[in-house]
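pasting for ref
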Amino acid sequence: MNKRKRSTGSSSAKGKSYGGSSKPRSGRSNASSSGTYSPRSEDAAKKVSTSHSSAAPAKSGGKGTKTTKTAALSKRPGNAPYRKSEPPRQYKVSEPDELLNFLLKHVKSGRNAVKSILGRGQVSIDEKVVTKFNEPLLPGQIVSISKEGAVAAPSLTGINILHEDDDIIVIRKEAGLLSIAADKSDDLTAYRQLMAHVRRSNPLNRVFIVHRLDRDTSGVMMFAKSEEVQQQLQHNWKENVQDRVYVALVEGKVAQEEGTISSWLKETKTLKMYSSSRPNDGQHAVTHYKRLKANREFSLLEVRLETGRKNQIRVHMEDIGHPIAGDRKYGARTRDLGRLGLHARLLSFIHPTTGKLMTFETDIPKPFLYPFRGETTSAQ
């Protein structure tokens, strides 16, 4: 008897990237949208069934029965048995506790097994995946345990999230990464990555840029999670922001230990900022600096902004004859650093919703300290 090879037509879900779909994945395949099932495939299956049933009778009735079952199965794409996705087990917290202790009370498994469940992202609190074993629990919260672990979040490139809540995200941006694209290009940006990050939990979520850092400037940045919060922060920027501190590695030895630079900034047609020689001609910019370290070749400065104008620090450092290391656009001659010698070290602000003072401080980039190796430093 002729045997026909049946194509399973199954497609693997592995390798598919998350595209922001609002439909949750499940173990059941959707035949109408998978592209595997079609009227033609059903007709083909019927023909296979008919050809088998009209063939010469087999010696044993058992084989004929088996052939009929095989033909019937071919109507289902892939012949893979449907598996129902099991709902997560849920437990309500009745008294304050820590997550690991709570799980040990409710899950009939050993301590190591429970830690493995946590590590695989199978545990969530009020629908938010949690992996910390000492996560505090409060009465009324719902702890869920899924059979399978959560899908790993894509790694972020050039940014680290320092803080995230319902209203804001605070990050540390690396040098070389755009804050946001100026046009509709496909360049990798902090904004684009954070948008994908927040949409993992809800496709309708968004982020809004509050302030920018130049591509080659590293440091602390803040994004809002709603347009209302963005407007509140931007319209009350001077009142909300209590302190903004940069560190700048500049060329040459800055003579004064402290100083203030004030000028009116304008922009050329080639998008380069400069200080106007005429008062009230442009945007007023004020920069305060303090010398942390200095030798003949370089000075490390702590810089505080009284105003936040485009390229303000870069222009003012050029104005005093000490351009930022690596900043060829604004007069630098050195390239040894391999990046722009400017880092937004500290951001302190009033939280737009809670009203609490929040301060985020990062370390001085190590390359900024290389010119002073072997010397005692108070920069850290």
